[in-house]
Amino acid sequence: MRPNPLRPPCSNPNDGIIFGFFPEYSLRSIFSPIARLVLCLLLASFTQSAWGRWQYTNGQEVRSGNFICLAIVTERGGNYSGSAVITSYSGSSAHESLPLRPVSIDITVNSGTPDEHPETVTCPVTGFSGFTLSFNADWTGDVSIVGDGLNLNGNNLSVSGNLIHQAGWLILNGGSHLNITGDYLQQCDENGDGAYESNCHGQLSMSDADDYMLVEGRVQFWSDVLYNTGIPSLRAGTLVIQGDFEQRTASDADPSYRYRSFRAAEIHVTKFSGSATQTVTFQNPGYSFFNILEVTNPHPLVFGSPVVAARVTGNATIAIESPGEGGISGTIESNVTFAGNAFTMISGTDLGGHSLTTNCPVKQVGDLNLSGGIITITGAGGWDQRSSLTIGTNGRLTVPGNYIHQAGWLILNGGHLYITGAYLQQSDENGDGIYESNCHGQLSMSDVDDYMLVGGRARFWSDTLYNTGIPSLRAGTLEIEGDFEQKTASDADPPYRYRSFRAAEIHVTKFSGSATQTVTFQNPGYSFFNILKVTNPHLAGTSTIPIADGGNMQLNYIGTDVIAALYINETPQANGLYDFTNANGLITGTGRIQVGPFASFSAWADANAPGQSMDQDHNHDGVPNGIEYFMGKTGSDFTANPGISPDGTVTWPKSPAFSGSYAVQTSADLVEWTDVTEDATQVTKNADSVVWTRPTGPDKCFVRLLVTPN
Known about the structure:
Layout: H1 33-43, E1 61-62, E2 65-66, E3 84-87, E4 106-107, E5 115-116, E6 125-129, E7 131-132, E8 137-140, E9 143-145, E10 149-151, E11 156-160, E12 163-165, E13 167-172, E14 177-180, E15 184-186, E16 201-206, E17 212-215, E18 219-221, E19 238-241, E20 245-247, E21 269-272, E22 278-282, E23 292-295, E24 301-303, E25 306-314, E26 317-321, E27 325-332, E28 335-339, E29 342-345, E30 349-350, E31 355-358, E32 362-364, E33 368-369, E34 374-377, E35 383-385, E36 389-392, E37 396-399, E38 403-405, E39 407-413, E40 416-419, E41 423-425, E42 440-445, E43 451-454, E44 458-460, E45 477-480, E46 484-486, E47 508-511, E48 519-521, E49 529-534, E50 544-563, E51 565-568, E52 571-572, E53 576-578, E54 587-595, H2 601-608, H3 625-631, E55 649-653, E56 660-667, E57 674-675, E58 683-685, E59 689-693, E60 702-709
Parallel strand pairs: 3-6, 6-9, 7-10, 8-11, 9-12, 10-13, 11-14, 12-15, 13-16, 14-17, 15-18, 17-19, 18-20, 19-21, 20-22, 21-23, 22-24, 23-25, 24-26, 25-27, 26-28, 27-29, 28-31, 29-32, 30-33, 31-34, 32-35, 33-36, 34-37, 35-38, 36-39, 37-40, 38-41, 39-42, 40-43, 41-44, 43-45, 44-46, 45-47, 46-48, ...
Antiparallel strand pairs: 1-2, 4-5, 51-52, 53-54, 55-59, 56-57, 56-60, 58-59
């Protein structure tokens, strides 16, 4: 006697079992009921093969009729208890029409005529395995996908409960619709204890434009086999989520693929349409991502991580919040507001003329193109650029803090960049939060409408700038209100390491601060300004100014400013006074520039107080010309006479270029004066100041400074 291969009627639902078997021969009725049951179970222990023709269920209603859960019992009226998994053979019988009828099964004993014992019983069905749907169906209660998965085959399935995807493909194709009132969870019950504690072995496939999957609860993607070929299986259709979304790392997948548990492409849409706040978290943003992300939820989305998409669309304004580091990347087709601790873009982003407003610092890891859009940071946050940024025509970026340019191009192509703090080209090479080395970034300005305002200091310290010898600062205006510093890049090839700032053609650099601005070039002649416009007559006396061949200086102030050195086309210029009358077109405007120290008081007076003596006051501020010369003051601005500090000291600024002598004198009655210049207990002589400290003793003490210039 040879039984057909069988699948066991009682087994772990994860094994993909079915109910029903079809022996070729009957068992004789001489066996006792118990013996027949034992033999039945033994026969049922074989593997199901081509006889898996029927589709089975737990007797729940479907739109086209009723499924019937079948089992073979030892006698009429017998009972069966256990659980089943819906399965189907992959052949044509998978499309069996409904309603299914009870099947007559021959139970054969050793001899005699067959005795038919068909029975229909009610048993709980726990999942799908290798099941191809051939009709529209409703499901009540939780259900799992195990074994060889579930193919909707162009049909619709409604699940009134949770759908646990443990293994196999869940295939939506041909316009299939899957509605889940509970959760869709990719996870496994590895040890059969009823707890789903690990990543799964299943994949979701959507390939038709009309495919549609609605999940009213939360969604979790945690598969260890998805995209191990690199080909996304979410290529079309729409996944609508009304609860939270979570992507997790699969622990036991190949390292190259374990981060890819959700990857959408082509025309696939993921839509968030909840009626309350929804949380979206990617454990591996950049490896896993949305394709088209559509947001129709009027409430904010809470991002537990940065989120990457090819396109972002939906509400006129999409509100995003984050308890920590979050962000959105992709082609942005809506305005976005973000509130959190840090906003991060980790992939190519195109603002497409829309606005992004955030109240926290921005870390830009992926490429960003404003395309005429506007980014505004409303808090005190800064900007950390680690990839390329393009601000096109009508585009505007406002940064209230510091702008750290670590890598990539910063391209102003008709756009505006406003930085309240500093602009610093520098790198944090080891990630310790300290910017200690030169960077790999470049600033490009090529349009006459380009504009960049730096409210703080500006540092240019790139190891890649101008390594082709072609300046990238060719037009537009760079306005600086703080100090300027050009530094040598340590690891670039010479002579390119010296070229961290080179301007040409019609590019303008403007110094417009309201306090002293120091301009430092570590490599004047290799790095230089093109057109230098100065409206602040307070460049520090230690400043070095290099001008490109064919460039010029526009001194738009009244008076004379002093700098340490001037270079024209790599050549240092002689010390002296320069203005529009003697610079061969190099200088325009009303201001004058003194290169190097004044040789004498008379030279200072020629520049600042023509025809006056040292005891006169050319600007009527109460400080004699000789004292202003001593202090290094130039121009007609008001000079404050120093007062007594709370610590009992008086400090007079002193120009390092002062030529002459001076004396500090004290008096108790303003009649008799004593010279204390060489009394070290009272007078401290510094390179740039003279400090008098009041001695202990008399209640009244007056002090004065006498200056005798050369």
